[in-house]
Structures are given as C-alpha cells and as structure tokens.
Amino acid sequence: MADNYQIEKNDGKESVARCKRGRVAKIVVDKNVCIGAGSCVVVTPGVFQLDKENKAYIVDPNTANEDELLLSAQSCPVSAIKLYDEEGKQIWPEAN
Ligand code: SF4
Q1: Which domain holds residue 67?
Q2: pLDDT value for 95
C-alpha cells in the first residue's frame, strides 16, 4: 500500500493529495481537463470516483500502491491525472 496520503484539496477545479514518502508524492486531478471517461475509476475505484458533475476526484490514494496509481493515471485518455515525485518533478505525464 502507498504511504499515508492526505487529501489536500477537493474543489471545483482540482483534486490534490500528497504524501511525504515514496515515488509518487503528489497526485493532482485537473477537473478542467477531465472528461469523465471513468478509466481511472475502473483501474483504482478506491482512489478515484466521479462527482456529480462527472469529474474525477480523489477519495483515498492509500487504497492503491504506486504502480496502480501510475497505471490509473496512464489510463486517462486526456492526461487529467498528474503525478509528481518528492522534489516536485512531474512523473506523469512524462515531459517531452
Ligand atoms: S480517466 Fe481521466 S477523464 Fe476519465 S474520469 Fe479519470 S481523470 Fe477524468
């Protein structure tokens, strides 16, 4: 299981969770980009759910490990889920 994520924000624009350790230290869902395709919910239903506007938000990242989190972010057809490491470097989507 992943390490102790805390939900930092869940508003109309963004859903953000952070943890202090590990490869994936920050998860961001950009709701402006999300099209409600639901792939992230299928891959990790404990982590992401759709709100009433059909936008994904973070429920509990501690229900998945880092590989599953990465898989879930990669499943998003519009790259609305961004992952960062401890130093703030973006892990996913990969920078060109
Ligand atoms: S997979 Fe992407 S577009 Fe689909 S609900 Fe999740 S964040 Fe939104």
Answers
A1: 6-92
A2: 75
